[in-house]
Amino acid sequence: MTISRRELLLGAFGRSPTAPRVPGVARLDRERCLAWSDLDCRHCVDRCPRSGVAMILEDFKPVVVPEACDGCGDCERICVTVNIYPAIRVISKSEA
Ligand code: SF4
Ligand code: SF4
Asked: So where are the chain's domains?
């Protein structure tokens, strides 16, 4: 089997378009979240493509709306830039 350059890069840096998708949902750990520790952070809310629907602010703190979250993972990817261990992670819906 020959692997194209594109497939090689996708394998290294992202999800293959043919990989099976497991339905996921974001789960927020408030104890690790900067905003829930009264620090100024809302990167996940700003980055969420469904901001205002899947991710809302309550008293300037992020809250995930599981029914509207599609598990894209953008919130986790941005959270890890401000936290060593992300305060928000996408888990499979079967774990939720
Ligand atoms: S990016 Fe992370 S630390 Fe910042 S508000 Fe979102 S979950 Fe909390
Ligand atoms: S997984 Fe995607 S849709 Fe769900 S809260 Fe995070 S950024 Fe928003």
From this structure: 23-92
Residue holding tokens 């952070």?
41
Ligand nearest to the CA of 87: 1
Q: How far is the CA of 21 from the centre of ligand 1 (A)?
A: 25
Length of the chain: 96
pLDDT tens per residue, range 2-48: 555 554 444 444 444 444 466 899 999 999 999 999 999 999 999 99
pTM of the prediction? Answer: 0.79
Ligand nearest to the CA of 78: 1
For ligand 2, say whether the CB of 73 is within 6 Å of any of its atoms.
yes
Q: Which CATH architecture has domain 23-92?
A: 2-Layer Sandwich (3.30)
Stretch 39-62: mean pLDDT? 97
Q: Which atom of ligand 2 is nearest to the CA of 74?
A: 7
